[in-house]
Every structure is written in C-alpha cells, then in structure tokens.
Sequence to fold (471 residues):
Amino acid sequence: MNIKHIIPGFIAAGLLSSCSHYLDIKPYDKVIPETAEDFSALIHEHLNDIDDGSDDVLVPSFSTTSSYDSGYGDDFEVCLTSSNVSRLPNYVGSMITANSFNNLYSNLYEIIRDCNIVISEMKESGTREADDLLATSYAMRGVAYYQLLRNFCDVPQPGNYDSQLGVPIVTVFDMEAKPARSSMARTIEQIESDLQRSISYHMDNDIYRFTEDVARGYLARLYFWTRQWDNCLDLAQELLAKYPLLDPEAYKSMATSGSGKLMGNQLIKAYRSVSISGSGSVSGALTSLSYRPVSLRFLSHFTDEEKTTDVRYGIYVNTKRQASKGIFCGMRGAEFALMEAEALYHLGQKTEALKAINNFRRHRIKDYTDLEMDNLPALNTREIIRVDVEGNPLTPLMGLILSERRKELFLEYDRWFEQKRNGAPQFSAMYNGVKYTTLSYMYTFPIPIRDIELNPDLVQNQGYNEVINRN
Fold:
C-alpha cells in the first residue's frame, strides 16, 4: 500500500531571492509550529516529493537520472541520437552553460534549512513522533550534504581532506551569516555525524522513508566515496547480510517491477505513490531514452556467452539497442556487495575480493563457473576508465569489479560518479557535426555565481572562473 504523507496546513519559512535564502528561516506572518506534528510538515513535504517522483536532489527522479546516465556519462551513443528528440543533454556542459546546477545547489540547501528548523527549534522530545522526526531530519540533512559533496567538491583524497574544499556548512539559524566553504574534512565530518545521529534513534517507521537501515546505507556510501575502506567494508557486509543478493529470477522480477512498493532487497526508492502509467515524468524519461541507443562501450562488457546467460542483458536492452531496463531511483542490496568487493581489493585482500565478485556474478549469470586469479578477463579496451580511485592503472581484477558495477547499476544514477571517482577521464561525443568534450574539471560542478558575487569568501571550483555564464 502506498503511504501518502500528511502535511499540516502551515508554512514555516519564507524565501529570499539571494543566496542566503537557505538561511532565512523566520516565519513571516505564518503560524509558528509547536508540536512534532506541526514540524513534520516541513519534512513530509520533501518525502512527498520523493514518493511522487518530483524530488531531483535526495533521491533523484527518472528525468534527472536519465540526464546523468544518458547525457553526462558514456553509457549511451550521443552521436546516434534521433534528430526528433531534444530532451536529453549531449554532454555535461549543456547543464553547466545553462546554469542548471543552480537549482541542485539551492534545493539541497532548502532541504538543509528545513531540517535545521526541526533539529534546532522543535521543543517536543522523548515521544515516538518527535524521535522519528529527528531521525529523519538528521538523515535527510546528511544525505543533502552528501549530494553536495559528490556534485560540488573534488573527489576526496585521504590525507588531504584538510586542504581540499568542502561546502558551506549551515546548522544554525542566522539570516545575516554568509558562510565560507568549509574544508573537505569538515564536510565529511558533518555528513557522518548527521547519519550517525539518525542511526542512534533506531527509527523503523517506513512512512518517514529514511529509516535506520537507509541511513546506514548512505553512511556506507559516504565511506565508499571517501575511501574509508575498513568502515565501508564492515558496514557493507552488515547491510548485505540483511539485504542479500537475489538469485537471477528474483532479481529479474524486482528489476522489472517498476514503481510502487519496495521489492526484493530495495531499501528506498522514488515513485512509491505513482504507477508507471500515471506519471508523465516517468513515461517522458523512458520515451526520451528510446531515441538514444545504448553505447557499444557499455554492451561490450557482456561477452557473447553472457548475452544469453546473464539475466541483466536480456532485460537491459532490445535488438534496436534501446534501453528496456526500468530506471531505478533509490538504493538496493546489490550495491553493498559491489562495495564489499572493491573495499576488499583496496585493503589488499585480493583473494577475498575475487571470491566476493565471483559470488556476485553467480547471482546474475546462469550456470556460472568461478573465475580464477590466473584466468581473469583482459581489460576492456573500449572502457574510458583506465585508473582506479587510488590513481593506479587498472588490474584485471579491479577491471572486473568495476565492470560488474557498471553493468549492475546501469540507469541507476551511478555511471557519471564512477567516471568522476576513477580518474575523471576526458571524453568526447559528436552530434550533428559538433564535437562535445567533457573535460576533467567538469565532473565537479561550479558554485552558483550568484552566491560567489554575494559572498566574496566563497571560493569557486577550479576551471570555472572564466567560463561561467553569469546570466
């Protein structure tokens, strides 16, 4: 059964047109919230957006996912896009020159603002409703900062966190404040602290979506992104024990289930309150994808034999190279298995890493025979990722792990970040006689120019000082 979030009839925050709107939390001529039920309006509004598929920042929508996966990354053939469709970007520069990143940045801070109101201003405590609301607010704030970290900061470099730039941290009400960018270390600390605080409430009320397990899943993602391999491995294995890999048929059933209730080993997802046929954004995204073929670079990760034995190939693409796999916006257990394999590899446990990736492939490929260290597949020559997250040339084992991740998380808002994480490779696409080149610095989006101009203490990301569109 789909749960519709109930929103009491009040608005607790006004908005300004400047960059400080996410700090502006005073209720202008509005009813001041008092009880946990009152405060919950701020949170339920965002949860409704996720369930309706209109959230583009916490659990990105089909439209956002299709733009990242088919336009910014290299899983689709831009050069073969049918001329009668214009909804898909040709490369990430289309988003940057249109200043579309402004909405991503401001929407995330609006969520942070609303979570700050609940965390700092709600007086009710000790009740189940208040605890559930606090757990959700901490989780959502942590996730919002995590999305800011991945999109607006360079890839974290362990040992250099203090010298790398993070994002402005806003946790208190101060309409006059103009926070500068924090360090990477401070940003990571904030995300980890928020998610740990959420986890401490042991919240399992599904109506709030960001349950304890979901918060733990995002914490695992943080450890993975920041290369805290020991912490990542421990948490990924704990979650994998609770949300184990599905066998091929169960996976196929889950992967083709579409919107609605959680299926299989899914922890959270968008579009729980709509059906495929009832959502224009869903059908629109799928229609747009039909005009841009899946790339041969992606398909080359399936051997000729796997095209008949790997359950994923049969549901991912049709004979016209059109994507037939449904877009998934959320989190599911398979991601933890992939984290486990990569964490083991980077911890030097290569034999265990191979065992983990063999087990993964056994759950996707019929009649699978385990690979041995001396008969691993050669590196894919079509793959644009040539180094791992540590900057080392890919080995056959790491190439296998990354290949499985690429196949498994196709159309799940992952490929672009995998490219960024593993060397940020430069690549080009042609369309209508124009060459579109993604340069390495473009993997990190610029801080909105309006914020830079209003706050001279904000530092712009490398590569953008001379090229940002100021309109």
